[in-house]
Amino acid sequence: MRPPLFALSALDKRFGARVLFEQAALQFEAGHGYVVTGANGSGKTTLLRMIAGLEGAQQGTLAFRDAQATVYEYPEAWRREIVYVHQQPYLFHSTIEKNLEYGLARRGIDADQRRIRVREALEWAGLSDRRELPPHKLSGGEAQRVALARAKLLDPALLLLDEPTANLDGEARQQVLELVTALCLADHTVVIASHDPEIMRLAILDRMVLAGGRIRME
Amino acid sequence: MDLFEPTRQAFALLVSGEPRLWGIIWVSLWVAVLAIGVTAPPAIIAGFALAKLRFAGRRVIVVLMQALLSFPTVVIGLVVYLLLSRRGPLGAFELLFTPWAIMLGYIVIALPILIVFTVATVQGADPRIYETALSLGAAPSRAALTTLWEVRFGVMAGIVNAFGRVVSEVGCALLVGGNIAGLTRNIPTAIALETSKGDFAQGIALGMVLVVLALGINVALASLQGRGGLE
Ligand SMILES: Nc1ncnc2c1ncn2[C@@H]1O[C@H](COP(=O)(O)OP(=O)(O)OP(=O)(O)O)[C@@H](O)[C@H]1O
Ligand SMILES: [Mg+2]
């Protein structure tokens, strides 16, 4: 059997007296999609942040590809392949194009290549006519789409999305749902924290439920 | 007392490009600019570290810097004087009564201002800036730069404040510079001297330059903020 792309085991996470995870474990297979659900405050955001190395924990072992690490000593290099998108994404106060370029530039990709990939990503997200706008003039749905495009064009091995549709409704929500579905259908490994029924209904996603300090596969 | 006549003379002095006057202005400018220039980069890095990293002694340093903010510049001048005086620990460098002595004083005055402004700005910054940069693959040092860039107006306000404070202070420059004509006489020490001698035209001319300088950089900052800001 193939080893999982990413595994987390013996995870203990507390905030003061509040116990979020106790000896929890999970695995992600390459090319699969996952939806993480659970009540408000059950720890979905915290879990994604720990997987992305943005938050430590009292205890926990991580495995990514052939490498091992602990939750409190997250390897710098993994951040190049594991990308987290905030529930309300932050866009840098420059242009949309600069936002999309940021990760590519950090990977040493040259300017010509960057321009091509940024244009593709803008098209993918349906934002080609918005490229000139400064980010603070975008609607919530457009900002979420920029953030999805900014993460997707890095072609991450593991893409972590925190409630991508939570603050949206109507057409904006539909547009983001389409992008999220497209990401799941491509061979990205996507993990989505969400209780959006339409995301949970996506047949291609495996469900994980957070409850009682554990992570349960369904 | 007649204010009009010395003011008219002051304008005449400035316009005539009198070398002695512009020499004084030049000393003020280059010493202050160089002092802020060498202090700002390490102070901003230190401010970022104090705001973001958790290490022992961090609180103590921040409180100390805040206390230093309200330190009288003449006392800072006294300390620098003692350090640089012939029998002081840095006496061998023979820097007392040179522009370098003033610059050292300016550095001590500017450092806490720059650090405190940066700490406050970075602590007030959206934590998602740093996290977004990291998660998009930036190294921590790069993510720190990105954060500072996103909140650059707060950091620049610190630089403007520090510059305004050092160019206008008298006590330290007078004490460690000695107000030597053509060498360490700068705008504030010259104003103090000329006024005490009764030469009001010189004092008024230099005072106007100082005010224009202080206002000018503040206006420049405000207009930058307006243009690059969030509307
Ligand atoms: N930095 C923190 N300090 C203290 N408590 C925290 C911190 N971050 C999260 N918590 C707590 O941990 C719990 C889980 O938070 P988290 O945001 O992970 O939940 P969630 O499942 O994402 O909730 P939601 O559905 O509302 O987004 C909450 O009770 C929250 O108050
Ligand atoms: Mg959440």
Structural features, described:
The complex is a heterodimer of chains A (218) and B (231). Chain A is built from six helices and ten strands; from the N terminus they run βββαβββαααβαβαββ. With 218 residues, chain A is of the alpha/beta class. Chain A has a domain at 6-91 and 156-217: P-loop containing nucleotide triphosphate hydrolases (Rossmann fold). Chain A has a six-stranded mixed beta sheet, sandwiched between helices. Chain A has a four-stranded antiparallel beta sheet with strand order 2-1-4-5, with no helix packed on it. In chain A, a hairpin with a 2-residue loop joins strand 1 (6-15) and strand 2. The mean pLDDT of chain A is 94. Chain B is globular and about 65 Å long. The interface between A and B is medium-sized, with 24 and 19 residues. The structure holds adenosine-5'-triphosphate (ATP) and magnesium ion. Magnesium ion is lined by residues 44-45, 87, 162-163 of chain A.
List keywords for this structure.
heterodimer, A: 218 residues, alpha/beta, 6 helices, 30% helix, B: mainly alpha, MetI-like fold, 78% helix, globular, binds adenosine-5'-triphosphate
CATH class of the domain at 6-91 and 156-217 in chain A: Alpha Beta
Helix-strand pattern of chain B: HHHHHHHHHHH
CATH topology of chain B: MetI-like fold
Count all strands of chain A and give the number.
Answer: 10
Q: In angstroms, what separates the terminal alpha carbons of chain B?
A: 48 Å
Largest interface: A-B, 24 and 19 residues
State the oligomer. Answer: heterodimer
Low-confidence stretches of chain B: none
Roughly what fraction of the amino acids of chain A lie in strands?
Answer: 25-35%
Share of residues in helices of chain A: 25-40%
The amount of helix of chain B comes to: over 70%
State the helix count of chain B: 11
Q: Please give the radius of gyration of chain B in angstroms.
A: 20 Å
